[in-house]
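seq as requested:
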Amino acid sequence: MIAGITEKEQKIIERILDKYRKDYAFFYYGSRVKGTYEKTSDLDVLIKGKAEMPLAVLQEIKEEFDKSDLPYIVNFSDYYKLDSSFYECIKPDLIPYNWQEVKLGDVCEINKQTYSLNENWQYAYYLDTGNITENKIEEIQFIDLNFQKLPSRAKRKVEKDNIIYSTVRPNQLHYGIIKSKPNNFLVSTGFSVLSVNKLFVDASFIYYFLTQKYLTEKLQAIAEQSVSAYPSIKPSDIANITISLPPLEVQKKIAGVLGALDDKIELNNKINQNLEAQAQALFKSWFVDFEPFGGKMPDDWKIGKLGEIAYITMGQSPNGSSYNEDKQGCIFFQGRAEFGKRFPSVRLYTTEPKRMAKKNDILMSVRAPVGDFNIAVEDCCIGRGLCSIRAKGNFQSFVLYTIWSLQKQLEIFNGEGTVFGAINKDSLNSLPITIPSLANIGQFENIVSSLDNIIRNNFLENTRLAELRDTLLPKLMSGEINVDDVKILADKSSFTGEI
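struct tokens:
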């Protein structure tokens, strides 16, 4: 409950305001929310509708409160009459009138089940903290207990809808929600495992609440004050987090909106994986195994060098004073730190670019690990850790999958000459490759470039969806936006959110 409102008083307030919530949102603020109230302190309520509340309606509400058994006065402020600076001042304290303020420990049980060797499992599936990031699992280890020992940290049991949250370095985002699992599934004791009380809370709502940036930063700050070998939090730090809980049906709606966005992102990712696998398989069939050509390289093809089909530009780092995260200047990639599975994420900009890569150029790491590559989504500056690779003709997809096929050759440079691997422009230009006839390259390009365009468009859509989700998340969690005002429109060709 809100500190300054008893359960009996809350029922009186809800009974009156519920009649008007179709057209207006009501938020508590002030001393009774902050816990600085006195017995006779007024209750401050903000009204927020699509327009200013008519005076007659406001007077009707006031009269109902005057007749009620509330032991204090209720003061109303209309959003449309507030000074903007005053609104910004009270905004962090606003709580929807029908939401409850509780500790996570009041609605979740943490580390409920532990595995015992007496259970005598014959096998186990094990998830370590480093193998999940933002709900994406990279690997689950299978352990045959007849021949292998469990890792010492493999002790936490999990169930469907449990939330797992790494207690070491929260800013590394090793968390997730278990929607399906194999039998005999264990996770590391480096996780806190949250089991929600489903009578009061929705597991997905709690998961999304815990993914908010401000909360990650708060938990990281606590971790950095710890006395352990690594920055870490205790399960009690999670249990003591205060959360404003809407009614259960609203929690499910909020989680449904955010989940729909994540589901579409995941669908696009799966489509992209499938399309990329098709393109790679086609390249291997034609230009490595020569399957359409009887298993032999055609006579009009040759073994040449990468420099014959591609322009290579080595990166050069701008002055460090020009770097910024405020979108001043052009996008800048120093090395592979921002690389994703296919496209990089944008973090840095520079106002003094030296060497530029163009949209759709291949960005390849020229320092350990040599050979990692992504594709430039737009023109960007590249630092000394990268080079750009661009086709000398209209066959960028062919060059892209050629680079993919060169990964084993490039691996040699990771240990060559120095402690840290590197490759120079001459070595790149001299990499041996198969150069087909222009006609065969054109045939491949006609097929695969369309697949690559779909992959790119899906990535751009995912970027927009993630931005929409990240914008909605804190606003829905605080009640600033009413979930009923959010419309998610989805069909086979588009997926957009409207507020």
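The CA atoms of residues 70 and 151 lie 58 Å apart.
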